[in-house]
Design a protein that fits this description.
Number of strands: 58
Structural class: mainly beta
Shape: elongated
Number of helices: 13
Oligomer: single chain
Helix content: 10-25%
């Protein structure tokens, strides 16, 4: 044995000439990295064998064709011997044989490391082993053989490749039963079938383990990974390639999977359940470029199972396109649940496909056969286009159909049936819409539907227009919807002059119909975007006299207004030619009052809805816009009048009327603007929400007087507050200019106008509506709904009330009033007012069928009693405060003696009043209710002043015998000496209740007048009537023939009665002087004829008859002081 130090010296120092060449073929010129540890020559019969053991001092890479030769080269795959430690050198065993002059060279029994430098291939850490930091490599045992021609062949044993991953895919492979592919002789069909060519160099494995965490989320969740055993894996300089197919059983019945016999992959989208039947995987050149899943998919709507194929196609790193296809076999079908037993849809021979994104949005398209049976529509086709779209909220099925027959409409050439199912709150599905859509020519459609009931002004498309028809089904009925764009809508406002018509930028018509047999009912809507030209608007306002009265702010910044007009189609149209409209955004108006132009208009309106009404035909068309919305009224104070009121007076009046700022004056507004036969007109009616204010008249007047006098209103906390609290609430406001149709305005020259206000006035629990109207014809004012109790009330103040003001010394003391007496009165007032509000609320809340007796007691007993209490205590408080105010003033301006004298005088006067009138009180429980009383002063003839109004007696109990008196209608009248309410009777008597067998009694009222006689300054009562008695009663009371004496009542009892109560003042004494006139007429309608003999009386009227003794009668009695 000879020991050598360097491998490159072997051929120089021995007779070996076949060492350097094969070593260069394997490793290149790297012999300086090898040291000879041992060299043994063994002689054989045919030659000799040289065995060499070499120590590797530096890394060696085996140089093979197409693999590269150096460790630093960018190769896909490298074989070599790696030195891990400077103290331990790997050993290789070389055997060189020379037989018959032919050399052989082999390397055996050395650790061969395979290093993969492809950046896409990375090692996978194995539990319990240290990880590597220099790429993916592994060691195998084996050798190489080189013949005399330097042809290299591997003599490696079968080996395995530890787990590695392909970067960016999540795919992990581990190879088993591998072989090297290092030359052309190693290329076979297994390599070419994997997609590689003859230059491939690397590894081929008969078997492999495959793990893939799919880089895909569906419905917000990771798709489950795949773990499988594969066969035929190629790994080399051209990448990694593999292909696999796995199968599983699937069991389902009636739209439900059997999970015990089915591989459930999970959900494709929300609750779309997927059962796995086959998995096909293809990896080419490091890229899993195709993954196919075949199975069955259950859709929650229509609750059916379809055959499904899902494909994942590689697009870029971590990016895959998901394709999905649904199918039904030849003998399979699916029925859709459409929410009604009469709605039928069955699909078969279905084949649709499309894409699925990471948000579970799905779009599939394809063909299907379908059978459709819906009310008014029956379809059966062998092939129809079908699209399925799924979003996070719904699924939509769209069927493209041809030659569809729809009842009452005929055949539609092409149509789309769309079914939308949406998710409910519990994750289930509900049918959202079922609609058939088509495009059709308007002339073909309009001839088949009844539009004759539409208003004449409603614009319609031209005959050749293409419109969209939609049919839907609800509660077993066919619903139709028609949509179209319009280019001309002038028909809508042809009553407006051409230059003043709105400019229209967009117009769309939609007609919604319900099919009722052969008829149609529904609604037509016209959506517009329009604006009013500024010049046209100014001319139009000037035309109705509003050029200085109205300011309009229309639409958006460019003046465009969005509105929608609606009209009834079919039997629901009452023929009024009215179109109702709503506005997308409110329109603002500001109004001044006629003849009173202010810097800031007092009335601002916001228009929210419109009604358009047309009448007439041809060129004689009248039209009216009815506008509805809200308003805001700004109080007009003296300082707003721009110098009309002198500044000093304006300032004082401002203080006086400052209470006007306390209320929010807003409410609903209704406007009318139109053109009629007598010209254009404008009218607005405003109804206030809650515009009530409370004011103390005495405080307000005292404050104003103090301002005028330049002195303070009071001197501190000891002032006496004289309460005269009045409530004032605005109810309605109206304004009109022009001759408004259906009004009572006179036809004449000029432009008529009218301004009116209605308000509620309240005092001490009593309320009445005040009305005021100013027009170009007359001034009118008055009140409404005033209830006057028919009673003589108890006087609010008595001597006991004055005595309660005394101090221990007997003198009136303001502190006693403020601390002891006034709080008790205020408490009584508060309790009565609270109870009154509750009673009114209870009355308003009573249903129409409430007990009549309960309603009567609440309206005419409980509420009036509370009102009387409030009036009584309000009067008591005011009179006491007035007396104490004078008493205190005497103390400030005079002496205590003057106060004592004043107290004695008042107490003496009150004693006299208590004695003479304190006991007088009477309450009938009835009310004289004035429904309306109005005075009218015409401007063209002031002498024709007139009054108008009506009143009635209220408060009779339902069972009262006087209940018919409540039906008497009093009319307000005016005469030369009085203003009055009067009722004129008729021939029909008011029946009185029957008393036993005495029936037929009644009262005839010829005249009843109650009013004010201004010639005598008196309360005037005038009555004329008749009492009709039962004939049976008259006969029974006449006992002269049976008992020898009797009374004969008259059949007719006529009475005329006049009363004037005139207040008289004589010195310090006030009293009422009654003037009475009466006429009692008891004569029969047909008096008995005159006697034929001299001195023979004629008996009539009321008679006393004692036969043979005395007989007397009373026919008439009359008295008049006038």
């Amino acid at each position: 044995m000879t020991e050598l130090y360097a491998a490159r010296d072997i051929e120089l120092l021995s007779d070996l000439d076949f060492f350097t060449a094969p070593m260069h073929a394997l490793f290149g010129d790297v012999l300086d990295r090898l040291r000879v540890d041992n060299l043994v020559v063994t002689e054989t019969d045919d030659g000799h064998t040289v065995t060499i053991v070499l120590a590797v001092t530096e890394d060696l890479f085996i140089q093979l064709p197409n693999l590269g030769a150096a460790a630093g080269a960018d190769v896909a795959l490298g074989f070599g011997i790696v030195v891990d430690s400077a103290d331990e050198h790997p050993l290789i065993y070389i055997e060189i044989g020379i037989e018959d002059g032919t050399p052989t060279f082999s390397l055996q029994h050395f650790p061969l490391r395979i290093a993969i430098t492809n950046p896409l291939l990375q090692p996978v850490a194995i539990e319990g082993q240290a990880g590597t930091s220099d790429g993916f490599s592994f060691e195998i045992e084996g050798g190489f053989a080189i013949d005399a021609d330097l042809a290299i062949s591997a003599t490696l044993d079968a080996f395995s490749v530890p787990p590695f991953t392909i970067a960016g895919t999540g795919l992990v492979l581990a190879l088993d039963h591998c072989r090297l592919v290092i030359g052309p002789d190693d290329i076979d069909s297994a390599i070419t079938d994997a997609g590689f060519d003859a230059t491939f160099r690397g590894l081929y494995a008969d078997a492999a383990l495959f793990d893939w965490d799919l880089p895909l989320q569906i419905n917000g969740h990771d798709v489950p990974g795949i773990h499988a055993g594969l066969e035929g894996i190629a790994l080399g300089n051209q990448g990694v390639s593999a292909q696999v197919q796995l199968d599983w059983p699937v069991a389902f019945q009636g739209g439900t999977f059997d999970p015990a016999q089915t591989e459930m992959l999970g959900t494709v989208a929300a609750d779309w359940q997927l059962a796995l039947a086959r998995l096909t995987l293809q990896v080419r050149a490091n890229v899993p470029n195709a993954v196919g899943v075949t199975g069955h998919l259950r859709l929650p709507f229509p609750e059916a199972i379809f055959a499904v194929e899902i494909f994942l196609a590689y697009r870029s790193e971590d990016d895959y396109e998901t394709r999905i296809a649904l199918n039904l076999g030849d003998d399979e079908h699916v029925d859709f649940a459409l929410g009604h037993p009469d709605y039928q849809l069955r699909v078969s021979a279905l084949s649709i496909s499309g894409s699925l994104d990471s948000d579970s949005n799905l779009a599939l398209n394809g063909e299907t056969a379908c059978d459709i049976d819906l009310p008014g529509c029956t379809i059966a086709v062998d092939s129809a286009s079908l699209s399925l779209e799924r979003t996070a909220d719904s699924e939509t099925f769209a069927f493209e159909l041809a030659e569809v027959d729809i009842d009452t409409l005929g055949t539609v050439e092409n149509a789309t049936l769309k079914i939308v199912a949406s998710r409910d709150g519990d994750g289930g599905r509900a049918l959202d819409s079922l609609e058939l859509g088509a495009t059709i020519t308007w002339s073909d459609l309009s001839s088949r539907i009844a539009l004759g009931t539409l208003p004449d002004a409603f614009p319609l498309p031209p005959d050749d227009a293409q419109v969209t028809l939609r049919a839907s089904w609800e509660d077993g009925q066919l619903q139709l919807s028609i949509d179209a764009e319009l280019a001309d809508v002038d028909r809508l406002w042809r009553f407006i002059p051409d230059g003043q018509r709105p400019e229209v930028s967009e117009a769309t018509i939609r007609i919604a119909l319900t099919v009722q047999g052969s008829d149609f009912d529904g609604e037509a809507a016209l959506a517009l975007r329009f604006r009013l030209p500024d010049a046209a608007l100014a001319d139009a306002l000037d035309g109705v006299g509003l050029g200085q009265l109205v300011a309009m702010d229309t639409g958006n910044a460019d003046g465009w207004i969005d509105g929608e007009f609606k009209a009834v189609v079919g039997s629901g149209n009452d023929g009024d030619n009215a179109l109702e409209a709503s506005l997308g955004a409110p329109v603002s108006l500001a109004l001044n009052l006629p003849g009173l132009l202010l810097p800031q208009p007092p009335l601002a309106l916001t228009i929210e809805s419109i009604t358009l009404t047309l009448s007439g035909a041809g060129d004689e068309v009248e039209g009216e816009f009815g506008l509805g919305g809200r308003f805001h009224l700004r109080p007009i104070l003296p300082t707003d009048l721009g110098g009309v009121v002198p500044p000093v007076m304006a300032q004082h009046l401002e203080h006086l009327l400052a209470v006007a700022h306390r209320a929010e004056l807003v409410g609903d507004a209704a406007l009318r603007v139109g053109v009629a036969g007598q010209g254009a007109y404008f009218a607005v009616d405003c109804t206030f929400d809650e515009a009530g204010i409370e004011l103390d008249l005495f405080d307000m007047l005292v404050g104003a007087a103090a301002q005028l006098g330049g002195t303070p209103a009071g001197d501190g906390g000891n002032d006496i507050d004289l309460d005269i609290e009045v409530s004032f609430a605005l109810r309605e406001l109206s304004l009109s200019v022009g001759r408004v149709p259906d009004s009572d305005q006179d036809a004449g020259d000029g432009m008529p106008f009218r301004f009116g206000i209605a308000a509620e006035l309240g005092f001490a629990g009593q309320y009445t509506d005040m009305v005021f109207e100013l027009s170009s014809e007359a001034l009118s004012f008055g009140f409404e709904n005033l209830a006057i109790p028919l009673m003589i009330p108890q006087l609010p103040l008595a001597r006991d009330d004055l005595d309660s003001l005394r101090d221990p010394g007997g003198a009136w003391d303001l502190a006693v009033w403020q601390q002891d007496v006034e709080p008790l009165i205020d408490q009584r007032l508060l309790e009565a007012e609270t109870a009154l509000d509750a009673a009114r609320a209870e009355l308003d809340a009573m249903p129409d069928d409430a007990d009549a007796g309960l309603r009567h007691d609440l309206r005419y007993r409980t509420i009036p009693a509370l009102q009387k209490d409030i009036f009584h205590f309000t009067g008591k408080k005011f009179l006491t405060e007035a007396i104490l105010a004078i008493h205190r003033m005497l103390g400030q301006l005079s002496t205590t003696a003057a106060q004592a004298t004043y107290q004695q005088l008042v107490e003496t006067y009150q004693d006299a009043v208590d004695l003479s009138l304190g006991w007088v009180k009477f309450d009938t429980g009835l009310q004289f209710v004035i429904a309306e009383a109005r005075f009218r002063l015409p401007f063209n003839d002031p002498a024709a002043i007139a009054v108008e109004g009506s009143a009635s007696l209220r408060g009779f109990a339902p069972e009262s015998p006087l209940r018919p008196l409540g039906d008497l209608a009093f009319k307000l009248g005016l005469s030369a000496d009085a203003i009055y309410f009067a009722v004129e009777g008729g021939a029909d008597p008011i029946p009185l209740p029957d008393l036993g067998r005495y029936d037929g009694s009644g009262v005839v009222i010829d005249r009843l007048l109650i009013g004010y006689g201004y010639s005598k300054n008196s309360l005037k009562v005038d009555f004329a009537g008749e009492l009709l008695l039962s004939q049976q009663l008259i006969d029974d009371l006449d006992t002269s023939s049976r008992l020898g004496a009797g009374i004969r009542l008259p059949a007719n009892n006529r009475l005329q009665f006049k009363l004037d109560l005139i207040p008289i003042v004589l010195g310090e004494v006030d009293f009422l002087l009654p003037l009475i006139a009466f006429d009692i007429d008891l004569r029969s309608d047909q008096p008995p004829p005159a006697a034929t003999t001299a001195c023979a009386p004629v008996w009539d009227g009321l008679q006393l008859n004692v036969p043979g003794i005395v007989r007397a009668d009373l026919k008439r009695a009359k008295f008049s002081p006038f």
